[in-house]
Amino acid sequence: MKTSQCDVVVVGVGGQGVILISDIIGKAAMKADLPVRGAETHGMAQRGGSVVNHIRVGCEYSAMVSPGGADVLLALEPTEALRYAEYLSPEGTALVNTKPVLPITVTTGAAEYPKLEDILGPLEILCKDLKVMDATGLAAQAGHPQAANVVMLGALSKYLPIDTETLMEALEETVPPKFLEINKKAFELGKIEVE
Amino acid sequence: MREYLLGNVAIAKGILEAGAGVVAGYPGTPSSEIVDTLAPLAKDRGLHVEWSVNEKVALEVAIGASWTGTRSAATMKHVGLNVAADPFMTLAYLGVKGGLVVISADDPYCHSSQNEQDSRRYGLFAQVPCLDPADPQEARDMTLRAFDLSEQFGVPVLVRPTTRVSHARSDVLVGSPQSRNPNPKFEKDPARRVALPVHARPLHAELLAKQEAIETALEEMPWNRLEKRGKIGVIASGIAGLYAEEAIAELDVDVSLLRIGTCPPPRKMIKDLLEHVSKVMVIEEMDPIVEEFVERAAKEHNPTIEILGKASGHIPGVGELDPLIVRNAIADTLNELKKEPLVLEDATLSILPPRPPALCPGCSHRATYYAMKKAFGKDAIFPNDIGCYTMAIQMGTVDTCLCMGASITIASGIRFGGDKKDICCVLGDSTFLHAGMPGLLNAAYNKARMTVAVLDNSITAMTGHQPNPVTGCTACGESAVPLSIEKVAKALGAGHVETTDPYDLNATVEAFKRAKEYDGLSVVVAKQTCVIEAIRSGIRRPRFRVIEDACKGCMKCIQFGCPAIEFDGEVARINALCSGCGVCAQICPHEAIEVVE
Fold this sequence. Notes:
Chain A contains eight helices and six strands; from the N terminus they run E-H-E-E-E-H-E-H-H-E-H-H-H-H. By secondary structure, chain A is an alpha/beta fold. Chain A has a six-stranded mixed beta sheet with strand order 2-3-1-4-5-6, with helices on both faces.
């Protein structure tokens, strides 16, 4: 028996706005009258470390997505997609922002950042569908590169059991008014990217 | 009303709905958001909400409030309950008047902690009830109910969320806040308020006598529920109960399930299940507490039953559980197909650069460590403590980390143990106030020759920037007299006390050199605002850049380890993360880093 309508794992780097994505989805699910669960990374992992959030829409169990159970892996950063690839269901979709955020181990020369194709290759084998996009570039096009998280949310919207209108309402309630137009545009650009 | 709430916010709602009047806590992941949520509401609702200087203090403040008849709560992380254990244990004897709830948030897997101890043991140890929520809804419901239980039995009640409850979000049904007791009064009652031996002995007997009634009441709590079905049984506590319920639904199997939300666990339900099944699996995070109860019950009620759990190796004893571990453990007992977790080959994952949490760009702690190491040399001994600054372990300046305040005391012990090397121990402002002061006093009194560095960024940063007595304001934002660490250090007996600004690198190196040469106990207070707080309060410093022609690629600035400095193979570059501390420009031997005017 399927125990959740849609399981999403959102990964990225502290500061990229991973929590905002789950916040908007959570509020939208409430509006759509769907039970919703989420799990967040706080504390030590936020200091530039990798961040992983779980969101389960239409689910009445725990907030944790089972490894191998994610319908969608939403990655705001390419290496983080591969780091958490174990969560992907073989039937799932990986949505990956191609713009790297260099970890301190790379900026100090202690490690090398891998080639994009070496990251995407294994991901392609692991899931049913891999979609990559330059979300940071699209966000810049929308008005600010920081809105890459909302570009990715726009792309994710196709896979969620919540209609766009409801997600937009939740978006409006969550982002500061002065950045609303940029975020709306970012959402649209992300949505178009997966159509 | 239904709201999408973080577990800790749901707990805060439960505290408000219970009509508590006093809430005191010390920040610690994963518990901090409870007081963070209540503090801004305190003034309007007429509550006293405080960040206490440590957990023992927080609990004792809550106890005093309870003894006036005001409902009160103390919040902390699991290791904080060790600090508060002294009042906690004897409070069970003396008892409460207004309901008193202690929230101790556990951290299986040590996401942000130094150990994964199980707070339920403290409930059993003190012989008081402990509630074990599975999700934010239960966290709110249990917190609210815990106040009633506390008053019903006259004992404190422990609520034990874990990281995956405190930092989970879900749609939570909440009610309206209630007002606090309007007629608080401390009534003199020495037999119940003064723990003299003559009072403690009968109070211990009284506590023992209450246990049966407590267990009966807990047995009937709605979070203990038994569903008798097939001849194989699962008993699961807290969040493991939710994982088990999902696994059974997903596997679509005929399994009996006992979900448990209290400690002590419900003995009658356990007996009932054990008499119904031929094999039982016990699933819980951390210690095998329910499992031990089940083993004892089985001896009495069904000695031939097969018990699977931690002792049998079916459930891991370390780390946290997840839905797949629980699913596969249940599938295994039923000879159902296990879902093989996806294991990526090492070769695939080895291309990933590690991404450890690090000090922020421009964090003054990095500069302090740099100066300290320059003055003391890498062979000196650097006992460390608990805070953001522990993350600088790769700088070679973190040699020990045990528990809050242990930097100074372990340093003293190393000195008295006979090591002759130079010693410079390090702790932050909040940790110094929490448990460092007695250690400093002890070091001065017992004549430890060493240096103590207090990294004073005037905030409790690691846990989310909570104010402390150095900050100059209270949890609720009221101004307070900012404490001087220098004056405290002098008063406690340090012979040489000096303050330095770590952004002035040379001056800080010199300050550390003087402290090192001092023949006695010296203290260096490295004072600079937390860089995140500086940005939040509107302080903007001009950024720095590398003059490419002048850069010789010596990597001195790179070795400093600031995330704002990158190396492209030939020259260094400063990226957009630069917050303008200017320390790298002082490190560069070629004057190749300049301020951007």
